Amino acid sequence: PATILLGRVLLAQAQAQTDPIEVHAIARKCQDELRARIIRLLDSVELLEVWLRAGHAQFLMERPQRCYETMLSLRESPYFDDLGPQQFLDYHFLLGFSALGVGKVELAMRALEWFLIHAEDDGRRGRAYVLLAESYLAQQRFVQARAASIEARKRHLVGMPSDWRQRTLRVWARSALARRKVRSSNSNRWCCAGKNPSSVCSWSIRC
Question: pLDDT tens, 76-107?
Fold first, then answer.
């Protein structure tokens, strides 16, 4: 359908830009064009694709709240189970991004883990690892956060847009700092325990 084709063309134009301002402007145009046409479409498999394109535009605009609302609309469609393999990948990536942005970190984690298991050759894997590391950090799962951030930095940094490279390095540094703090805390705990075993219990209760 023409609506889906228009969305794909505009998103391709947005992704080809190197200036974040231009990316946001074209993504906004895509979102507005899809929104203007979506009311003319009945709930159908084609409408699911329109929702995915709209969610992608909202991802490029860095609007997780709107993207999350779009993914909820998609999930509530009676045609949701008719999504194709690539559409399921798109849905889980966008759900992970948007759920993290609205504070639903466990949902984000599960969506991104699913995506990474199934998206072996997808160009979004690096960004998915970054988002996953951030979701782990939010849950204080520091070992997993460190592993995900290292994967993003080691294997995917070069192919990312500049803003995502910066985000990768930030989460890599944050996860390293969090791990050092945990190790330091554990070291202090056992050091105190060696001098006075009863102090371990009082330390644990205070924390």
Answer: 988 899 999 999 999 999 999 999 999 999 99
Mean pLDDT of 9-14: 68
Cβ atoms within 10 A of the Cβ of 103, count? Answer: 11
Q: Which residue has the tokens 């906004």?
A: 28
Whole-number Å distance between alpha carbons of 142 and 148 = 10
CB 70 within 8 A of CB 51: yes
- Count of other CB atoms within 10 angstroms of residue 106: 11
| CA 193/CA 207 separation, integer angstroms | 15
Residue 23: helix, strand or coil by DSSP?
helix
Q: Is 105 left (phi over 0), alpha (psi -120 to 50) or beta?
A: alpha
For residue 161, give the 3-state DSSP assignment. coil
Q: How many Cβ atoms from other residues are within 10 Å of residue 85's Cβ? A: 9
Tokens of 205: 């209760």
Give me 20's structure tokens.
Answer: 């974040």
| Distance of alpha carbon 9 from alpha carbon 4, whole angstroms | 9
Check pLDDT > 90 for residue 23. no
CA angle 141, 137, 167 (to 5 degrees): 145
